[in-house]
Specification:
binds zinc ion; alpha/beta; single chain; 6-stranded mixed β-sheet; binds guanine; 6-stranded parallel β-sheet
């Protein structure tokens, strides 16, 4: 029902298939009121909508009509429709006049595309006992709903809502239990109060602990989330669908949505965007209108802003710039920034989903960037690699920071602390001294051979400006370098720090910025494919062809047989047949994806691999990795580029998983 087309962080551009057509995700489902609807949401860009089955059920006339002509005609929408079950009414009024079974039957009877069971939205911060009690009922009802839908061969797809209040372990437990049931979509529920209170840090916990235990292959809907300000953050955490009554509720209160927050019409001197409404009218025009007309126009603006933001988010995923957008958006409100900082705590999980290489460069937008998945991955890689090999300090940028941020720097400097800091600097970190300045560049420790590899050279951060920072950086580097034999400091750094390091410290003559090409190739191979890959790939009579224009390595041969090409954009190695064979000779599953023997011939013919045929897979595989395709006996069949990470490959049953480059016939 769901396929991934592009990825960035945990965000995905996907396609959701329903009985009323396919929609792109991330997407927003405007809430349609079955009786009071006045806004034509389709005209303003809605591909899918959500309405409330319980409200229809309770209204005799609507209920009769829905059963007669069907839901699509009732609300006059011919695309996919999701229905909610009355759970929200349950959470507001404490009770509803419908059973779980009845609401499931009713949703199927009126022809909804995606129905919902009667989960219990347990609010945040309730007693643990209450959260557990509610949760058991939610899970029981999900079970009942799914077996009912399956036993009766329903057309309708079914939602199973993750609850668990603000208890991370209950969110995980619920998600794990619901995953076993194999529902069609997984909404994350009871987050509306968190959003209303601006408790984005707790929202991050609720979402991350839920998605962590949900299957990758199912779409996730953040229930009741309809403010465009939070879409980017939530998409980065893996949410695919949002729903919004906000567009109309805010319009009725003369409030306009923007990605920077909500604005009141009474405070506006200028219209906030460039939509049709904002271009055609002034705030005074709107204020002078009668209410009904004004609500229509503000709702139109609100929908426009929401859909525009989703287009921007999808484009950012295609480009690999989603985190830059998230970081920008999360500066709209201090509490959102709090949520973003908290997301940094999940870097280890996010790294597993983040593509290995992206089209766009890594932009440092502030200290939060230091916790991004790319940085975590780089530090992990450094720890895996032979640590005492030529480290180079690239242009580094420093800045003073305040106390509460220091923890993140400690982590960033784990590597430096282990291996390369002088006692003095180490001591400062250990004592938790917080007022000293640290190197403010996400990738400051870079083995010399890797300085062209994504994201190490495809990243940017601001320059050092203030004198104090320069002095600190200079001392830091001198300390750092004294303890470390092979530290090379990039000439730009020397220049910026006004540091004539080589003369002053008798830097050994032989250490220059010239690189040994074979060493470089091996280091890149180890960084990309794991330790030992370099030695496995580059043996024999190595011949290196460079670009005449840039002087960069392009092709690497053993005599006349090509082993790898080096991609200009990110300096990653692209395997050839010989390279693939050499890499495959390494013991174990490293870089390998095992496919069902029944499709062996397709792979050998160079056809793409579909996820449903994948039997096993190296857990280090990330999307955009070069991977080896083997059969159940471990024989190499083909090689190609991963479109998914390891867990997605194992979980999906639809769509492509590997774009094959070449097969072995
Ligand atoms: N709408 C907003 N939150 C919820 C929720 O937790 N459950 C359901 N069913 N609908 C919602
Ligand atoms: Zn507008």
């Amino acid at each position: 029902m769901f396929e991934i087309k592009a990825k960035d962080m945990r965000g995905r551009v996907g396609v959701l298939k329903t009985n009323h057509g396919e929609i792109k995700t991330p997407n927003l489902m405007p809430v349609i009121h079955p009786r009071k609807q006045t806004v034509d949401v389709k005209e303003y860009g809605a591909d899918i909508v959500i309405t409330n089955a319980y409200l229809i059920y309770k209204d005799e006339e609507l209920s009769k009509k829905a059963l007669d002509v069907g839901l699509h005609e009732l609300i006059n929408f011919d695309g996919p429709i999701m229905t909610d079950s009355g759970s929200f009414q349950l959470s507001v009024y404490g009770d509803v006049d419908i059973t779980n079974k009845e609401v499931i039957e009713f949703q199927e009877a009126i022809g909804t595309d995606i129905g919902t069971s009667l989960d219990i939205p347990t609010g945040p911060y309730v007693d643990r006992e209450k959260a557990e009690e509610d949760l058991e009922i939610t899970i029981e009802r999900a079970k009942e709903a799914i077996s009912y839908v399956k036993d009766n061969d329903y057309e309708m797809k079914i939602n199973s809502v993750v609850q668990g209040s603000t208890y991370p372990d209950l969110r995980e437990y619920c998600a794990t239990e619901l995953t076993k049931l194999d529902a069609d979509l997984y909404p994350i529920g009871a987050v509306v109060p968190l959003m209303e209170m601006y408790h984005y840090r707790d929202l991050v916990d609720a979402v991350m602990h839920s998605v962590k235990c949900l299957p990758d292959s199912k779409a996730r809907h953040l229930m009741g989330a309809g403010h465009p300000m939070i879409f980017a953050l939530c998409v980065a955490m893996g949410c695919d669908l949002f729903d919004s009554a906000a567009y109309i509720l805010y319009a009725e209160a003369d409030r306009l949505l923007t990605t920077r927050g909500t604005v009141k019409l009474e405070n506006l001197n200028e219209m906030p965007c460039s939509c049709e409404v904002c271009c055609k009218y002034t705030p005074d025009d709107l204020r002078a209108m009668d209410k009904e007309e004004r609500v229509q126009l503000i709702a139109q603006h609100n929908l426009h802003v929401s859909f525009a933001e989703l287009r921007l988010i999808r484009q950012a995923i295609y480009e690999g710039s989603l985190m830059e957008l998230v970081e920008e958006r999360c500066r709209a409100h201090p509490m959102l920034l709090d949520g973003l900082r908290h997301l940094g705590e999940y870097s280890f999980d996010l790294e597993k989903y983040d593509p290995r290489s992206k089209k766009s460069a890594f932009f440092y937008t502030g200290p939060e960037s230091l916790k991004r998945a790319e940085v975590t991955r780089h530090l992990n890689k450094l720890n895996e690699m032979d640590k005492r090999k030529n480290l180079v300090v690239l242009p580094t940028y420093t800045k003073p920071y305040t106390k509460h941020l220091t923890n993140s720097f400690n982590e960033l400097f784990v590597y430096a602390k282990d291996e390369s800091l002088s006692e003095d600097a180490e001591c400062k970190i250990e004592n938790g001294e917080t007022d000293f300045m640290v190197l403010d560049t996400p990738f400051c420790l870079i083995p010399l051979e890797l300085d062209e590899v994504y994201p190490l050279s495809q990243s940017d951060a601001p320059r050092i400006r203030d004198k104090m920072a320069i002095e600190f950086a200079r001392d830091f580097l001198i300390d750092f370098a004294e303890d470390y034999d092979n530290v090379l400091i990039h000439p730009n750094v020397l220049e910026e720090l006004e540091l004539d390091y080589i003369e002053e410290y008798n830097y050994p003559e032989e250490i220059k910025f010239e690189k040994d090409d074979i060493k470089k190739l091996k280091a890149i191979a180890d960084y990309q494919f794991g330790n030992g890959a370099g030695d496995a790939l580059f043996t024999g009579k190595i011949k290196i062809e460079k670009s005449k224009k840039t002087g960069k390595i392009r092709h690497v041969y053993d005599k006349n047989q090509i082993i790898v090409n080096m991609r200009a954009s990110d300096s990653f190695l692209i395997l050839s047949k010989l390279g693939a064979k050499r890499l495959a000779a390494i013991e174990g599953m490293r870089n390998k994806v095992m496919i069902d023997n029944s499709v062996e011939s397709f792979a050998r013919d160079g056809k793409s691999v579909f996820a449903k045929f994948i039997k096993d897979c190296d857990e280090n595989i990330r999307s955009n990795d070069e991977v080896l395709i083997v059969n159940e006996q471990g024989e190499l069949l083909a090689f190609g580029k991963a479109l998914l990470n390891y867990s997605e490959m194992l979980d999906f049953n639809t769509g492509q998983a590997i774009k094959t480059r070449k097969g072995f016939k």
